[in-house]
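User: quick one
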Amino acid sequence: MNVIEVRNISKSYGKVKALDDVSFSVGKGEIFGLIGPDGAGKTSMYRILCTLLLPDNGIAKVDGFDTVKQMNEIRRRVGYMPGRFSLYQDLTVQENLEFFATLFGTTIEEGYDSIKAIYSQIERFRDRKAGALSGGMKQKLALSCALVHQPSVLFLDEPTTGVDPVSRKELWEMLLMLKERDITIVASTPYLDEVRCCERVAFLHRGKIQGIDTPERILHQFADIFNPPGLSHAKETEAKEENVIEVSHLVKAFGNFHAVDDISFNVKRGEIFGFLGANGAGKTTAMHMLTGLNQPTSGTGRVAGYDIRTEYEQIKRHIGYMSQKFSLYEDLTVAENIRLFAGIYGMKDAEISRKTDELLERMQFTEHKNTLVASLPLGWKQKLAFSVSIFHEPSVVFLDEPTGGVDPATRRQFWELIYEAAGRGITVFVTTHYMDEAEYCDRISIMVDGKISAIGTPDELKQQFHQPDMDHVFTYLARQATRKSD
Amino acid sequence: MKQFLSFIIKEARHIVRDKRTMLILFVMPVVLMLLFGFAITTDVKNVRTIVVTSQMDHLTQQVVERLSTSEYFIITKSVSTPQEAERLIRHQKADLAIVFAADFASKRSGLQFIVDGADPNMAQQWINYATGVITQASVGTVNTKMLYNPQMKSAYNFVPAIMGMLLMLICAMMTSISIVREKEKGTMEVLLVSPARPLMVIIAKAVPYLVLAFLILITILLMARYVLDVPLAGAIGWIIFVSIIYILLALSLGLLISNIAKTQLVALLLSAMVLLMPVVMLSGMLFPIESMPTILQWVAAIIPPRYFISAMRKLMIMGVGIREVAQEVIILIAMTAFFLTVALAKFNKRLE
Amino acid sequence: MTLKYLIQKEFLQIRRNAFLPRLIIAFPIVIMCVIPWVMSMEVKNIKVDIVDNDRSTLSQQLVHRIEASTYFIFNGQKPTYQSALKEIEEGKADIVLVIPPNYGKNEMLGKDSQVLIAANAVNGTKGSMGAAYLSQIVTSHVQPSMEAIRSGVSTLLLYNKHQNYKLFMIPALFAIVMMLMTGFLPTLNIVGEKEAGTIEQINVTPVSKWSFILAKLIPYWMIALFVITVSLLLAWIVYGITSAGSIGLIYLLAMLLALFFSSFGLIVSNYSDTMQQAIFVMWFFVVCIMLLSGLFTPTRSMPSWAYLTTYINPMHYFIDAIRTVFIRGGGFYDIAHQVFALLGIGLFMGGWAVQSYKKNN
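Assistant: Done. Structure below.
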C-alpha cells in the first residue's frame, strides 16, 4: 500500500511555475529522497503534502487522506521539519524540546530513544538559550525537536544543512531505525552520501520530476549535476614563505567555557586553508577573533601583518569575509550590493562600474545586474557573496561555511571561483562540512573541543591517521571529542 | 489540556525573558499615572505677570497684593508704561500685563490686560482668573458644586483614558507582533502541521497577554486609588467586567492585525500608527469628542476605546450603576464579537 | 567618501520597502489635515439642565438668557434636582442650574438667595469653565453693576488676535510629525540589520563608526526636511496659516530637532536586541518627552520637580522656540538660547549614538 500518492500536482506563484505536473508515490516504511537543486520546487512539494499549501491542480494523498479536504487527519499523522526550521531563540535547549514534545503529545522521556544519538551531543547545553548556540548545534536541536515524536510519515526538508559529517552519519542511522518501525520518511539533501542512504529518489528540476529510481541510477543518469569531475588544483611550486595569518596560544573564554582553547597555527600567502571541526568545536568563534569582530581572552594573533587585539580596524581593510548566514542586502539589487561594498573599501565610481561589468560578465550574470538579491536562488547568492567579499582584492578572505545547502554542481562552480582567487594570490581561509571540499584545500586543520587536534595537507593527515579519505579522518578525530558527553 | 498549558508556559517565557519590554510594560503605567496625576495640568498657575501703573495708590496696592498672594500669578515686575510691558512680553519675559488706569482708584474701573495670546485657551483663562481676583467676584449669589471631582484633579479624567490606551497597546500590539514573529521566523509552519488545533494555538497565544493586561489593570487601579486618591466610586466587579470585555476586544484587534501583516515591521507600524494614533486622538482621552467637527465625530463613533473610556469614567469616577453604561457595554460586546469573528474567519490555517 | 555609498544604500532600502515611502508621504498629510480639527481644546457645546423651583418673572428671564447664550446648549427644564442628576449620570447633561424657590422675591428684597450650579467635573477643565461662564451669567443677571465693571476692562491680545486655536496647535503638530518620522524609523533601523544579520558583514569592513552612523542619520534628516516642508505647505493651503517669523529659523529648529530624535532612535536601536523591544523603549521615552514638553499643557503649571526636567527636554526648547517664531514672529535673538540648548543636546546624543555602536566586542 502506498502511504503517499501524488497525482499531477501543479503549483504556480504568479508567473513562476514551482511545480509542474508532478506525480510519484511512496510505499509504507520507505525512505524516499526528494532531491534537486535549490529552487527546484522541493519546499513547495513538502508544503503541499503537509497541507500548508493548496495545489493549483492535481491530487495528493497522505496516509490515505486528501491534503485539501482532510487537513486535520493529516496534521495528526505527519511530522515536518521545514528547511529554515527556526527555534525559539529566547527559550533554552530543554525548553524548546519540551515544548515541541508536548505539542506532539509526547514527552522527552518517551521520545528520548529516538533522538538520543543527536540530542546527547547537545544535552550538556540544555540550559543554554537556543539563540546562543552555534549554527550547527541549532540544526541538531531542530532535528531533535522534529524527531521527538514518532509520526507515521516524516517530512525532512534538507535537515542536515550545516551539520558536521559525524553527526550526519548518526542522524541517518537514526532514520534507518525509524524505518524499522515502519515510519515512512521523505527527505531532501544536497549531500551525495545521504542520497545513497535512500531507497528510491525522485530528482526534481525546474518544477518537473526528471526521474525516479534507485540512488545509484539517478546519480549516474544526472552525473553532470551530482557528480561533477573533481577539480585539479595546480599547486604553485614555489609556495611563498610569508605568513599571512599567525596565531599563537589563542583563547576565547565565555565564563568557564573555553570556546577556543589555546590554538596556534600559521597560514601562508596564497594558500587555501581548510578550517574543519565538528559543530560547536569553536570554528566560528576563532574566525570572529581573526576578523576583528571579537576580542581574544588571551594569546596573540596577526592577520595580514596586524595585531588582532589592537589593530583590528586595519585588519578589516585587508580582509574579505563571508558569513555562515547569507549576508548581502536582500532588498538591494546585485549591482547595488557590489557598489556598496566596493564603495566602503574606498574604490572610485568609475573603477567600480568597470569592475562590476567585468565581474558579472565573468560570472555570466550580466542579465541579473538589476535583479533584487532576495529573488536569486541560494547557489547564486553564495557565489555573488563570495565575489563581493574579494571584490576589493583583500590579502585574506574568510569564508564561514560558504556552501551550506548548495547542490554539488553549484558547489563545484563555487570552488572554481575560490581557485581563481587563490591563483591571484588571495589567501583563502574556509570552513566547511563537505569532506570532498576538504580535499580541495592545500592544508587543513581539524578542531576538536576548541583545540586543533590535527594540521597538515590532506594526504599527510590521511597517512598520519591511517585512513582512506578525509571523511574517515574527520570521523576518527571528531569521535574522540569529550565535550559532548561530560 | 497539557498541550494548551505548555503553550501558555512557552508564551509566558517569551514575555518574561524580554526583561526590557517587561520593565517598560510595568514602568509605563506607573510613570504615566504619576505624570498625569501630578505633573500634567492645565491649571492656571505661576503666570508671569507685570503690573503697569503710573501711581501705586492704596487700592492698586491692594489689588496687586491680592494677585500676588493667589497661586495663579507671580508678579515679576512693575513698570510704568504699557509700551515697556509689551516689550517685555514680546521678549518672552512675561505672559500677562495688567494696566491700571491713572484714575483706577477713584473710578474703580479702567483696566487693561495685555496678554500673550499664542495659546488662546490659556489667554482666556488668565483673563478670567485675573478679573475674578481683581473684582473679587462675589460668591454670595451662586453656589457652585463640582460633582464627582470637587478638587478638580485632572487625574480623574485621565485614569480611565490611560487604561484605555495601555490595554489597547499591550493587547493589540504585543499579540499581533508575537504571532507575526512566528510567521516570520518560520515556527508557525511547524505549529500548523502539528496535531495542535489552530484555534488552540491562537487562544494559547492570547492567554498570557490577557493575564498581563489584567495585572496592569490592577496596577493602574491600585495606583489610582492609593497614590492619586482617585475614588473607585462604582462597583469594582463591574469595572473589571467591562475592562475584560475591552481586553478581549483589543486581543481580537491584535489577531486581526496579525492576519494582515507579514513582517514584524509592518505589524509594529500598523499597530503604532494606524491603531494607536486614532486611539489617542479620537477616543476622547485628551480632546473632547463633542468639540470635533461632525465628520470626525462619526469617525470617533467607531473607535472602540471611546466607549470604554466613557464607560470607565462613569463607572469609576461617577459611580453610577451598570445600567447607566448599558449602551457602551453593549456596543463593546458587539464590537468584540464582530472583530473576533472576522479575525478567526480570516485566520490562515495554511500558508500564503 | 564611503559615506556616499552608505547613504545611497539607506535611501535604496527605504525606497524598496513596500510600506515606508507611503508612510513617509501619507503620515504628515493625514496628521496635518485631520488633527487640528481634533485638537481644539475649546470647551464647546456644554449641555445645561435647569431646575426652576421659583417660576417667577426673574427666574424665567434667567432661563431665557441661558437659552439665548451661544456657549451653552439648553437641554430643557427638569422638575427636580434628582431627575437632573440622573441626566448627568446618563451623560445627557453636563451642568445643572437649580433656581431656589422665592428667588425672584428675595432678589427684589435685596436678600441673597443662592443659586446652585452643579457641574460634572470628571473633566475638570470642562466642568470649571462651564460653571464659571454660567455663574457669570447668573451674577450679571442680578447684579448689573458687576457687568459694568467687567465691561470697563479691555483686553489687548498680542499675537493670535483671532484667538485661533489651530494657530497655536500647528507648531505642536510639526513637533509631533517630526518626532514620529525621525524618531521611530531610525529606531527600527539598526536593530533590523541585527535581526537580518547584515550588520555582521558591515562590522568586518573598515567602515568607520562615524560614517556608518552618519549614513544612517542623514537620510532621516532629508526626510525631516521633506516632512517639515509638506507640513508648512499644508498649514498654508488648508488653514491659511503661515509663519509670522522667518522660515529659515523654522527649518533650523526642525533640523535640530531631527538631529536629536534620529540620534536618540539610533541609540535605542543600538542597545536593543529585537524590534519589539526597541519600539517599546522608544515609545516610553517619547511619551514622557512629549507630555513634559509643554506641547499640550503649560509647563509653568507643573510642580517644580517636573519643571526641572524641562531643562533637559529638547522638545520643550523646540516648542518654545518654534511658537516664538511661528506665532509671535520672533527673530534669532529671541530664540538663541533654545537653539544653543537644542544644538548641545543634539550633538551630545549624536556622539552617544556613535559611541554606542560597537564594531568589536
